[in-house]
Structure of Chemotaxis protein:
Amino acid sequence: MMHQGHSKSQFVAVASIAAELSAVMNVAKDISLAAANAKAIAFRAGEKAKGFQPITDFINELAKDTIQLVVIINQKALQLYQLTIREHRLAEACEQFENAVALCDAATYADSLTQSLVLVRQRRSECQRQFPHLVAELLALLSDVMHPARAARVIAANSRIEASQAGEYMQSLQAVAESVDNAAQIIHDKVQQCRSALSQIHTDAYFPSTKTFS
């Protein structure tokens, strides 16, 4: 059935988003740990890493901002998953009631079945109305996550410059800069994958008749 194919595509998309967000959370925590390590190295380096010390605070703040955003996004993603399940169950209920109404058209209590079918259809329509709006909220939040990821890449570039002046601590601090840069790129890629999956089901939610489901 079409609704089964549609629900299946939504389940797959929401599950993949949850996996990507979990990876983003882990990477953000890694950035926070890298900031703590960099702070310790910069403290030991003293004047040689004076310019690097405030950068560690920026890195840590960016990690915290990303983690906070991902927590909010995870909550929205859970709502989306629950809404997907509810819509799927209501779609199945609609199908069952439609079959029952067709079989019991002349039965004494056929009207009660028809009333139940109307109620289930209304509830399903409400889910379908909520779905694209919730997806749009998630897309906006994911765009917000991109800002600290971009900022982290800029900070990583500045970190390399400051690390080059840290004498014997240069390699350690440059390694921190590289880890932050790599983490920011991973976050960027993961978030882009989330946005791609959401954009697809967002389109499907608004224009379900334009897509053929298997």
About this structure: Confidence is low (pLDDT under 50) at residues 206-214. Helices lie at 2-45, 53-103, 110-163, 170-206.
